[in-house]
Write a structure and sequence with these properties.
The chain is mostly helical. Helices cover 73% and strands 0% of the residues. It contains 5 helices and no strands. Helix 2 (15-53) crosses helix 4 (90-148). The termini are far apart. The relative contact order is 0.08.
Length: 198
């Protein structure tokens, strides 16, 4: 029964749907920013292209080589520092490995908590979005209903003239109601005595 209850609870939880709605709404909001970014890139593109054309390829190659050497030297010094601090004692290595594992678990738990918080925030945003959509849909339906069948103006306090009364269509006549068959009267007749024979 516990599995059935868990399945029922999982399938009836609207949070994933709210998350999807929130994600869609956030994507739409970001998509609305794209035309502005395209215009900005279009305006900046000529200047950037001219700047790239003006760069000497040899200078770029020299900068890249210098940065690669710096990165290699930095990496080499860090590796040497790590190796020099690495204790060859197996017990110390075991403790270090355990410490790394615990840190990894802690980081994973932290990321799981952050992911859950983000999920809940997006789901809340989605719930508000759905409520907004429902409200807009209700307003649209109300406007449609008003357009199809406008509310009659109240005629309270208005006195009709005979001319106005004649112009209004007469209400449809109701079909005459069927009468129930009449109940039969039962008459009680007194027994007549037969006249005496002559």
């Amino acid at each position: 029964m516990a599995i059935t209850d868990d399945l029922r609870k999982t399938l009836s939880d609207p949070t994933p749907l709210y998350f999807a709605a929130g994600t869609a709404d956030l994507a739409i909001q970001q998509a609305k920013k794209v035309p502005g970014l395209v215009e900005q890139l279009r305006a900046e593109a000529p200047a950037r292209i001219d700047a790239v054309r003006g760069i000497d390829p040899n200078a770029v190659q020299e900068k890249a080589t210098a940065r690669a050497k710096e990165a290699q030297e930095t990496l080499q010094t860090r590796v040497n520092g790590f190796i020099s601090t690495l204790d060859t004692d197996l017990k110390k290595i075991g403790e270090t490995a355990q410490d790394f594992a615990l840190r990894g678990v802690g980081v994973a738990a932290e990321y799981a908590v952050k992911a859950r918080e983000t999920y809940e925030k997006v789901a809340e945003h989605g719930e508000q979005t759905v409520k907004t959509w429902r409200g807009e849909a209700a307003e649209e339906i109300e406007e449609l209903a008003i357009a199809v069948e406008p509310n009659p103006e109240p005629s309270e306090g208005k006195i009709e003239t005979p001319a106005e009364a004649k112009t209004e269509p007469a209400p449809a006549k109701k079909a005459p109601a069927k009468k129930a068959p009449a109940a039969r009267k039962t008459t009680t007749t007194a027994k007549k005595s037969t006249p005496p024979a002559k």
